[in-house]
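User: Can you model how flavin-adenine dinucleotide sits in this protein?
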Amino acid sequence: MSRHLVLVGGGHAHMMTLANLDDFIAQGHTVTVIGPSEYHYYSGMGPGMLGQTYTPEDIRFATRHVVEKQGGRFVLAKADRIDPKTRTVYLSTGASVPYDVLSCNAGSYVPTPNLPENQENVFTVKPIERLLQAQTQLVELMLRQPVTVGIVGGGPSAAEIAGNVWGLARSQDLIQPAIRIYAGSGFMARFPAGVRRKVAATLKRKGIEILTNGYVEKIDKGRITLASGVSADLDFIFLALGVKPSPIFEASGLPTGPDGGLLVNRYLQSTAYPEIFGGGDCIYFQDQPLDKVGVYAVRQNPILLHNLKARLAGTALTPFDPGGDYLLIFNLGGGVGVLRKRWLQFSGRPAFMVKDYLDRKFMHKFQSIE
Ligand SMILES: Cc1cc2nc3c(=O)[nH]c(=O)nc-3n(C[C@H](O)[C@H](O)[C@H](O)COP(=O)(O)OP(=O)(O)OC[C@H]3O[C@@H](n4cnc5c(N)ncnc54)[C@H](O)[C@@H]3O)c2cc1C
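Assistant: Here's the modeled complex, given as structure tokens:
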């Protein structure tokens, strides 16, 4: 029986499904993919794109092209809401798309609750494609005047952005900006001391300041104010605060985890609606909370592909096993990084080279479908 499979978002967990859309279509199903951009940008290489190690073409998948080439339909829009009773996805364009089986991989965003609108030279680290606009504006500014860049956030993306702002100035042969990370009360606090020290030492060698004297409470017209009342004027600001799952699920009244992510069981299936699946940053995995890292989204690929096919065919689903510890490598700009896998930790050029090799391999695998 012909049925309609709808994918919301062409993120990291949908890569294998997108690569195999022709299988679904050969079985007589219709496939629609909804996304706000014709391309999906690989976040692992996003900071490297900011630092001009990579071009935008190096780090993106041509989602629309891949979908249409295989006979699917691509709808350029954001999904705003899902009505699970009528099995309909409502879009930002006002249109709606009915589904029989739905899979959501709409990622996460950086919440900015206290940020007044229309702030100049303030960028969140997601969506990744906006880092390109940040790069252009920052270079223009650095060409005109001495610049102070502030990165608000104390985690790996703050560290990677800071290092790659440094890398950007170096690659353009510009005077280095003053770079400050406003890390709240602790920098890289959830990582082992060895990793923390290596990342901090690498950044400090680049002249990057790491401030841990309190949280930023207010940002307005380039001035940031800490909870203590201390303020500073900055020319350019990146917000690398923690991410939250896509707001679609809370807006739809679907069961969600404490972070607002779609609550899914071990089959990556909504706990209330068996025809809804999801993967990546936008889900809350009921068995155990998962870190918001691309590694899990990538590991979910074969399970989502199998389970979407199985749901359409009425056959058995396969459970997702998150697996053990994962390899983490931070790109700290200028061709250096820090690597951590269980007890193994090292920094410098070799760490970056491992990341570069793995990231390019991942990209080639899926870009080759294009
Ligand atoms: C700067 C930075 C660097 C990172 N580096 C690493 C790293 O090196 N390694 C690692 O493992 N993790 C890294 N992460 C974490 C990683 O980004 C996320 O875990 C990963 O992106 C999750 O993949 P995803 O596909 O779920 O979400 P996303 O990558 O956010 O993809 C979601 C997709 O859905 C689309 N979309 C969004 N909203 C909608 C909507 N409403 N309707 C339809 N489509 C929508 C988007 O356009 C996008 O294509 C990094 C994060 C950041 C911010």
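A couple of observations from the model: DSSP finds ten helices and 25 strands in the chain. The two ends are 29 Å apart (CA to CA).
User: Helpful, thanks.
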